[in-house]
């Protein structure tokens, strides 16, 4: 079955045209009033959508500029929005992996010392931290779509500076600017997709972003292999981002702004116009979901009228519902980074050399790890919303086994058993990267759907900042940690130990958000933690047939 066919399964429930108003969970007569006139409401929305564009400010016209596309089949617009915006992951993936091969030639041309080379690799996640911090004001004032376009500009500046570097200082600056683009994009894409597409396919399409990161990493290794023997080839490698950033920037001009962001900004008419392009408005469920979204936005605006912006930040920690979502999302993001995947990606060629491959073959063999990550992401894209989040989180067991084999591979003497060492190591890398491919999808899906509308941008900023902070820590300290712990101690003891602990955290504390609208997920995180744990324990007992 094709990807589109799998995704289309998620629309089955949208073909029910006889949904009754009082059957819908969030919007009912008690909330909207017994005399609420639905026909009149949508007639008003139609008028507002026509008038909205004429009344936009200059900034709104600039940030929402679009070459409008219309499809008779609404799901095609959903696929286009989710698929193309998720393609931003290609940029992030290429820039993460390309440095593995580029560092070999760069080291000689720029006369890099070991610490300087570590900083070149780790400055991108450090810049991404800055981009994550910038993401909240950009998301708030310019919108989700415009923020992704702004990230493309940072990518372009950074790639150009890296390609033209004449000193390690220029390379530092270029990698940092690239990181800013990564940080802005990484937080915005998940929000943009999750706010725009139906709940039934939200997990699949947000997971597609991780697939494109993995695809970008494979492309990065392939580009490195193509230009490895070209004189000054590392400049072509690090400059390749220009192609991807330009394509993404142009493509985003054909996509609409997030309808939930527009409602959040009280641009109801524009939001309804976008909603009609993404949903079949003749289906009652889609009408009711829009009313639910509109009602939630009005409640938010009433709350904002009596609170300061500082209150919004404190509410993220003060209100139990928000605090539970934040702790959960940060821990899940941490499990995706502190188990070492980015350090392994950045130093893949170097690690291949440690196990016995020469420089050229190290670059080519890096494709094995990147390919495993790519293939591993495919099942999560196809079936994320079919099997649920908790099922995919169990992939942590698979990449723990991979880390065990990687650690064992380092212990086999390459002087006497090189083939065995290579075989065990590569098997471990394939398992580790393959299972992590599906697991990594969760690190983008879960934060993007866990926070309420008021705190979503701030919550994603915090999650993204922690993600790139941990990536910087494990990448910059990779050599030091290997020297202190040995190769086996780092992969098996540190990375593997964290994966082992994470397995039990997920079993007990991870809620299931499969098939839930963003508004319904509010109800899940409004439950006390002990209730979530109790429900998970009961579910596990039922699964194993324990009474």
From TrEMBL:
Which PROSITE patterns does this entry report, sorted A to Z? Answer: MFS, SUGAR_TRANSPORT_2
Give every Major facilitator superfamily (MFS) profile domain span: 81-514
Against InterPro entries, the record matches this protein to: MFS_dom, MFS_sugar_transport-like, MFS_trans_sf, Myo-inositol_Transporter, Sugar/inositol_transpt, Sugar_transporter_CS
Per its record, what are the GO molecular function terms? transmembrane transporter activity
* GO BP, one annotated term: polyol transmembrane transport
Q: Principal place where this protein is found? A: membrane
Membrane-crossing residue ranges in chain numbering:
78-99, 119-136, 148-166, 172-193, 205-228, 234-255, 325-348, 363-384, 391-410, 422-446, 458-478, 484-508
One GO term describing the cellular component: membrane
Report any Pfam family annotated for this entry.
Sugar_tr
Q: Is Methyltransferase a UniProt keyword of this protein?
A: no
The UniProt entry lists membrane topology as: Multi-pass membrane protein
**Compartments it resides in:** Membrane
Origin, by domain of life? Answer: Eukaryota
Into which family does the record put it? Belongs to the major facilitator superfamily. Sugar transporter (TC 2.A.1.1) family.
Protein's UniProt name = Major facilitator superfamily (MFS) profile domain-containing protein
Q: Which organism is it from?
A: Debaryomyces fabryi
């Amino acid at each position: 079955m094709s990807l589109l066919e799998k995704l289309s399964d998620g629309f089955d429930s949208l073909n029910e045209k006889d949904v009754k108003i009082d059957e819908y969970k969030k919007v009912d007569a008690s909330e909207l009033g017994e005399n609420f006139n639905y026909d009149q409401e949508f007639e008003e929305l139609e008028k507002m959508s026509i008038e909205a564009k004429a009344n936009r400010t200059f900034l709104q016209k600039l940030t929402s500029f679009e070459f409008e596309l219309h499809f008779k089949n609404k799901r095609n617009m959903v696929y286009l929005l989710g698929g193309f915006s998720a393609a931003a992951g290609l940029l992030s993936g290429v820039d993460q992996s390309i440095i593995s091969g580029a560092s070999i030639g760069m080291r000689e041309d720029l006369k890099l010392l070991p610490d300087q080379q570590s900083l070149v690799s780790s400055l991108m996640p450090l810049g991404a931290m800055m981009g994550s911090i910038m993401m909240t004001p950009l998301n708030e004032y310019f919108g989700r779509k415009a923020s992704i376009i702004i990230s493309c500009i940072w990518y372009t500046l950074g790639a150009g500076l890296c390609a033209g570097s004449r000193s390690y200082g220029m390379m530092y600056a270029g990698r940092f600017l690239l990181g800013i683009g990564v940080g802005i994009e990484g937080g915005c894409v998940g929000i943009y997709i999750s706010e725009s597409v139906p709940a039934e396919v939200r997990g699949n399409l947000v997971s597609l972003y991780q697939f494109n990161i993995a695809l970008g990493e494979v492309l990065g290794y392939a580009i490195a292999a193509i230009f490895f023997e070209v004189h000054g080839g590392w400049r072509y490698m690090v400059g390749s981002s220009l192609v991807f950033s330009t394509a993404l920037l142009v493509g985003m001009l054909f996509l609409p702004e997030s309808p939930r962001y527009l409602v959040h900004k009280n641009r109801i008419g524009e939001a309804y116009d976008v909603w009609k392009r993404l949903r079949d408005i003749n289906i009652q469920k889609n009408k009711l979901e829009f009313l639910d979204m509109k009602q939630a936005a009005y409640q938010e605006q009433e709350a904002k009228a009596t609170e300061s912006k500082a209150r919004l930040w404190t509410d993220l920690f003060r209100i139990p519902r928000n605090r539970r979502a934040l702790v959960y999302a940060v821990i899940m993001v941490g499990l995706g980074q502190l188990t070492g995947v980015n350090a392994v990606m950045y130093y893949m060629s170097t690690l291949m050399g440690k196990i016995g491959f020469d420089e050229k073959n190290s670059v080519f063999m890096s494709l094995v790890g990147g390919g495993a990550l790519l293939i591993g992401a495919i099942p999560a894209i196809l079936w994320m919303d079919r099997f649920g989040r908790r099922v995919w989180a169990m992939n942590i067991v698979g990449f723990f086994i991979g880390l065990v084999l990687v650690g064992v591979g380092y212990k086999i003497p390459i002087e006497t058993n090189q083939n065995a060492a290579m075989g065990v190591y590569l098997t471990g890398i394939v398992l580790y990267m393959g299972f992590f491919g599906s697991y990594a999808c969760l690190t983008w899906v879960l934060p993007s759907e866990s926070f309420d509308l008021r705190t979503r941008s701030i919550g994603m900023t915090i999650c993204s900042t922690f993600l790139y902070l941990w990536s910087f820590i494990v990448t910059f300290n990779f050599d030091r940690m290997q020297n202190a712990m040995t190769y086996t101690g780092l992969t098996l003891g540190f990375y593997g130990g964290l994966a082992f602990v994470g397995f039990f955290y997920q079993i007990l504390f991870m809620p299931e958000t499969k098939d839930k609208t963003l508004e319904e997920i509010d109800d899940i995180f409004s439950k006390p933690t002990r209730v979530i744990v109790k429900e998970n324990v009961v579910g596990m007992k039922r699964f194993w047939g324990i009474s």
